[in-house]
Design brief:
Layout lengths: L11 E5 L15 H6 L1 H7 L3 E4 L3 E2 L11 E5 L6 H13 L3 E6 L9 H9 L11 E2 L22 E3 L5 E3 L14 H15 L5 E4 L39 H13 L6 E4 L6 H5 L9 E2 L2 H5 L4 H17 L5 E3 L8 H5 L21 H17 L3 E5 L20 H5 L47 H4 L6 H14 L9 E2 L6 E5 L4 E6 L5 E2 L5 E5 L7 E2 L4 E5 L1
Parallel strand pairs: 1-2, 1-13, 2-5, 5-9, 9-10, 10-11, 12-13
Antiparallel strand pairs: 3-4, 6-8, 7-8, 14-15, 15-16, 16-20, 17-19, 18-20
Helix pairs in contact: 5-6, 11-14
The chain binds 1-deoxynojirimycin (NOJ).
Length: about 550
C-alpha cells in the first residue's frame, strides 16, 4: 500500500456495541466511561479505529437506533463532555472514532415527531415524516402493504385517523428525505460531530432513506429457494437511485474537514454492482460487504463473493471491506458450527438448523479471521469476536429485549444472543464487565462458563482466539503486502482457497475434507492451528512468507 493512501482504505475497525462493551458506572449497561477505561486493550489488540453504536439521547426502544436528540449523549452512556474526552483520548492512543448516525428515522420522542403529533393532520410539521390517510372506506387499512423489518405492518394509525410510516418499530418513524429541512438538519448534525473530532460515521440503513413518491405496494417477493442470478428489481423503499444525491452532499460536508474523514454505509444491496454505487468517487468512502458475512463456509461461495466484490468495488476505485459478524447477526462460530452449508439470510428469523458443533465453528472462525485479515481492503471486528464468543442461544425468554421478540409475536427471538456483555476477567458474572462489587446485573445474563473466554483468561495463551487476532493484527500492520491492494489466486487443490498478496505473502485456507499440501514458502508467519509435515488440516488457514 502506498503511504499516502488514506487510512480508511486498509483500516481494521473494531465495533463497540456500547451497551455491552464495558460498564464504567456500575449500572449493568456499558457506557463511555467503560470504553475509555478499555482504550489500552484496544490499542494492544492493534485496531485502527472504533465504530460506536448509537450513543445519542434515546428512549432505547431499539437500543439507541431511535434517536431523540442527535446532538446529545444519552445519560445511560455518559455526557457530551465525556464523548469529547473519549475522542481525544482515543486519538492519543492512535485510534480513530466513528460514531453511528441514524438518518432513516428518529425516535417518536424526537422534538420533530412530537411537534408533528401535536400539530395535527395536513400541517407542515407532518411533512418532515411520512404521514398518509389510510385505505378502505374509513381509512382503516394501512396506506400500502409495506412491512416493518421487525415484523408486522410498517404503518401505525394515530387517534386522529392518519397513519405514519416506520420501516422498523413504531417508535422509529421514518423521515421524509424529500424535505429540505431534513437534509439541512443532518448536514448540520454531521458538522456538529466532525467539529468535535470524530473521524467518520457509520450510516444506519443508508439504502432506505428515499421512498418512491407514490408509495406503491411491494413488488412480488423473490422465492428464497431460487438460486438463479439475482436481478435488480426497483423497490419502493430499498436502494433507490435517488439516495445517492444525499450522500454526494454528505461527502462534501466531510471534505470540509481536514484529515480524511470517512463514511461507511450500512447498505443492503442486491448485488456487488448495486453496492458499488454507494462508494463512487463523489459519494461515500466504503460500505459493509454483507455478501461476505452471508456466504456459507464453502470455497466456491466465498471465492465468488471475494472476486465479485473486488471487481465491482475496484471498478469504482473503492476498497473492499470485510465483515464476519455484527450486532444484528448470529455470531459466526455458531453459524459455521452447523452442518448446513446453506447461505444464512439476513432479516430472516434465526432458526438454527441441527446441533451446534462449537469446536468446528471455532476452528472455522479462526480460519475465517485469517482469511478476512489477509484480503485486500479494510475489515471490521465485532466486539467479542476476538474472544471467539458464540451466539448465546439459550437466553431465557424473560430476558429478551430486542423489539423483534415482541413484534414477531414471540416467533423470532431477535438479536440479543449476539449482544451479551463481553467477559473481561474473573470466574463469575459479570466477568469484569462492570466494576468489582457491582450491584446491578449485566443487562443480559452472561453464560456461566464465559470466564474461560475472558480477555484475562486468553491473554498469553498462544492457542487462544485473542492471541490469534493480536498476532494477525500486528503482522498486518507490519507487512507491506497486507491491507489495500489486490490479490492473485494460486493454484490449489479443490476446496482450497490460496492467494498471494504482492511480493512475499500468501494465505491458504483449507475448506476441503482432506489435509492439503502447502505451496513453497520460506516460513509460516501465522496459522490457525498446528501445521505438521507441510500439510494444512481441514478447516485451517495459514499465512506464509513466500
Ligand atoms: C440497522 C441497525 O444495525 C439495527 O441494529 C437497527 O435495529 C436498525 N438498523 C434500525 O435502525
Amino acid at each position: 500500500m502506498s503511504n499516502t493512501a488514506p487510512w480508511w482504505r486498509s483500516a481494521v475497525i473494531y465495533q463497540v456495541y456500547i451497551r455491552s462493551f464495558a460498564d464504567g458506572n456500575d449500572d449493568g449497561v456499558g457506557d463511555i466511561a467503560g470504553i475509555r477505561s478499555r482504550l489500552p486493550y484496544l490499542k494492544s489488540l492493534g485496531v485502527d479505529a472504533i465504530w460506536i453504536n448509537p450513543w445519542y439521547k434515546s428512549p432505547m426502544a431499539d437500543h439507541g437506533y431511535d434517536v431523540a436528540d442527535y446532538r446529545a449523549i444519552d445519560p445511560l452512556f455518559g455526557t457530551l463532555a465525556e464523548a469529547e474526552q473519549l475522542i481525544e483520548e482515543a486519538h492519543r492512543h492512535g485510534i480513530r472514532v466513528i460514531p453511528d448516525i441514524v438518518p432513516n428515522h428518529t425516535s417518536d420522542q424526537h422534538a420533530w415527531f412530537q411537534a408533528a403529533l401535536a400539530a395535527g393532520t395536513g400541517t407542515p410539521e407532518r411533512d418532515r415524516y411520512i404521514f398518509r390517510p389510510g385505505r378502505g372506506p374509513d381509512g382503516t387499512e394501512p396506506p400500502n402493504d409495506w412491512l416493518s423489518v421487525f415484523g408486522g405492518p410498517a404503518w401505525t394509525r394515530l387517534p386522529d385517523g392518519e397513519w405514519y410510516l416506520h420501516l422498523f418499530a413504531p417508535e422509529q418513524p421514518d423521515l421524509n428525505w424529500q424535505h429540505p429541512e431534513v437534509r439541512a438538519e443532518f448536514e448540520s448534525v454531521l458538522r456538529f460531530w466532525f467539529s468535535r473530532g470524530v473521524d467518520g460515521f457509520r450510516i444506519d440503513v443508508a439504502h432506505g432513506l428515499v421512498k418512491h413518491p407514490e408509495l406503491p405496494d411491494l413488488p412480488p417477493r423473490r422465492d428464497p429457494e431460487d438460486e438463479g442470478p439475482r436481478q435488480h428489481v426497483e423497490h419502493p423503499h430499498w436502494d433507490r437511485d435517488e439516495v445517492h444525491d444525499i450522500f454526494r452532499a454528505w461527502r462534501k460536508v466531510a471534505d470540509e474537514f481536514p484529515g480524511d474523514r470517512t463514511f461507511v454505509a450500512e447498505a443492503w444491496a442486491d448485488s456487488p454492482e448495486r453496492l458499488a454505487a454507494y462508494v463512487r468517487q463523489d459519494g461515500l468512502h466504503t460500505a459493509f460487504n454483507f455478501d461476505f458475512l452471508m456466504a456459507s463456509w464453502d470455497p466456491k461461495d466465498l471465492r465468488a463473493v471475494i472476486d465479485d466484490s473486488l471487481a465491482m468495488l475496484g471498478a469504482v476505485g473503492a476498497p473492499a471491506t470485510w465483515v464476519l459478524s455484527n450486532h444484528d447477526v448470529v455470531r459466526h462460530p455458531s453459524r459455521y458450527g452447523r452442518k448446513t452449508t446453506k447461505r444464512w439470510v439476513a432479516n430472516e428469523p434465526y432458526r438454527p438448523e441441527g446441533p451446534l458443533d462449537l469446536e468446528l465453528g471455532t476452528r472455522r472462525a479462526r480460519s475465517a479471521a485469517l482469511l478476512m485479515l489477509a484480503l485486500p481492503g479494510g475489515a471490521y471486528i465485532y466486539q467479542g469476536e476476538e474472544l471467539g464468543l458464540p451466539e448465546v442461544e439459550d437466553l431465557p425468554e424473560t430476558a429478551l429485549q430486542d423489539p423483534i421478540w415482541e413484534r414477531s409475536g414471540h416467533t423470532d427471538r431477535g438479536r440479543d444472543g449476539c449482544r451479551v456483555p463481553i467477559p473481561w476477567s474473573g470466574p463469575a458474572a459479570p466477568f469484569g464487565f462492570s466494576p468489582d462489587g457491582t450491584s446491578a446485573a449485566p443487562w443480559l445474563p452472561q453464560p456461566a462458563d464465559w470466564g474461560e473466554r475472558s480477555v484475562e483468561a486468553q491473554t498469553g495463551d498462544e492457542t487462544s482466539m485473542l492471541e490469534l487476532y493480536r498476532s494477525a493484527l500486528h503482522l498486518r500492520r507490519e507487512h507491506p503486502a497486507l491491507g489495500d491492494g489486490s490479490l492473485t489466486w494460486l493454484d490449489a487443490p479443490t476446496g482450497v482457497l490460496a492467494f498471494s498478496r504482492g511480493q512475499g505473502f500468501a494465505c491458504v485456507v483449507n475448506l476441503s475434507a482432506e489435509p492439503c499440501p502447502l505451496p513453497d514458502h520460506t516460513s509460516v508467519l501465522l496459522s490457525s492451528g498446528p501445521v505438521e509435515g507441510g500439510l494444512l488440516a481441514p478447516d485451517h488457514a495459514v499465512w506464509l512468507a513466500v
